[in-house]
C-alpha cells in the first residue's frame, strides 16, 4: 500500500523563489524578489532585538497590538484584520476555506504563481483569464467565471507585469461578479502606487460581503524574512480565517517588528521616494539603450528582450557580474526579465552592465 497525497498536489510545480547567490562572486545585487533595498526601518530592527528575552514565550495568538497598529495606520477596523505568516499563508487559508476538489479559481494570465499553485493543492482547477497587452482584462476575468468558481484572484498592481487596474475597473469587476464568488485583491505593492485612479480595495472590503484585500510586510516594509502579511476581510470571512489558521501563526518577532514598521511613516516615505526616482531613471536609461520596458507602478519593471534566447543570455550575463534578476519563463513571458528597483549604486551597475551587453563589448 503506497502513501497517496490528496488529488492535485502532485500536479504542482513547487514555487521557485528568486536566486540569492552566485558561485565565486562576493558582491551581489539582489534584484530578483522585489525586496526593499533600504532594508527594514530602524524602529523595526530595534523592536526585533527587543523580544530576545521572550523567545521562550508563545506570541499573542490574536496579534492584538499588530492588528490595532495596522488599523490605526491605515484607517481600518482592527476586528476585520487577520494576520498571517506572509500573505502567502493568507492566500492559502482562503483557498483552504472556500475552495474544494473540482472547484475553480479564476486568475489573470500573468498573475502571481501562488494562485494556481494554491488551487492545485486543493484539488481545484486554476482558470486563467487572458490579459490585454500585459494588463488585466476585467471582461475576460468575468468571462472565465463558471458556476464552479469560488475565488477570483488578482494582484493590483500585478506582479510581474507592474500594471494596474483602476478603481472603476475594480468596481465593475465586483459589480458583475456573483455574490458567492470571493474577490481577493492582492495589494502587495499598493504603497508604491501614486495614481489618483488607483485604490487598494480596502474601502470595497467595507462595502461588500465578498471582497478581501491582502497586504504584506515583505515589500515596502522590508521584512520579507520575518514572514508577515495581513488580510482585510468582511467580518464573516475574518471569522472563518480565525478558525482555520494556526493558533500562533505569527511569531513574536514578526508582531513586534510589524507594529514598529507600520508606524514608521518616514521610512515608508523614504522607500517610496527612492523607488519612484530610480524607477523613472532606470526606465529612461534602458530606453536610451534601445531596450523596451513596460510601464510599472510598483518596485520592479519588465524589460522586453523580444526573444527567449536574448532574455536568457542577458540573465546569465548579469548573473556572472553579480546581478540577480528574475527570468519570466514560469510566468509565460520568456522574452522578458523582471528587475527589482534597488539602490542608486545597484541600478547604476545594472545600466552599466546592460550597456555592455547591448553594445557587445
Ligand atoms: C511578494 C508578493 C506577495 C507577498 O508575499 P508574502 O508571503 O507576504 O511575502 C504577495 N503577492 C504578490 C503578488 C507578491 O508579489
UniProtKB/TrEMBL annotation:
Name listed for the protein in its UniProt record: Histidinol-phosphate aminotransferase
Keyword flag Cytoplasm: no
Record Gene3D superfamilies: Aspartate Aminotransferase, domain 1 (3.90.1150.10), Type I PLP-dependent aspartate aminotransferase-like (Major domain) (3.40.640.10)
Species per Swiss-Prot/TrEMBL record: Kiloniella laminariae
N6-(pyridoxal phosphate)lysine modifications at: 219
Pathway(s) served: Amino-acid biosynthesis; L-histidine biosynthesis; L-histidine from 5-phospho-alpha-D-ribose 1-diphosphate: step 7/9
Catalytic activity annotation: L-histidinol phosphate + 2-oxoglutarate = 3-(imidazol-4-yl)-2-oxopropyl phosphate + L-glutamate
Keywords of the record: Amino-acid biosynthesis, Aminotransferase, Histidine biosynthesis, Pyridoxal phosphate, Transferase
Subunit comment: Homodimer.
InterPro entries: Aminotransferase_I/II_large, HisP_aminotrans, HistidinolP_aminotransfase, PyrdxlP-dep_Trfase, PyrdxlP-dep_Trfase_major, PyrdxlP-dep_Trfase_small
Gene that this sequence comes from: hisC
EC number: 2.6.1.9
Family the entry assigns: Belongs to the class-II pyridoxal-phosphate-dependent aminotransferase family. Histidinol-phosphate aminotransferase subfamily.
Pfam families documented for this protein: Aminotran_1_2
Cofactor entry: pyridoxal 5'-phosphate
Top EC class of this enzyme: transferase
MF annotations from Gene Ontology: histidinol-phosphate transaminase activity
Domain Aminotransferase class I/classII large: start-end pairs: 29-353
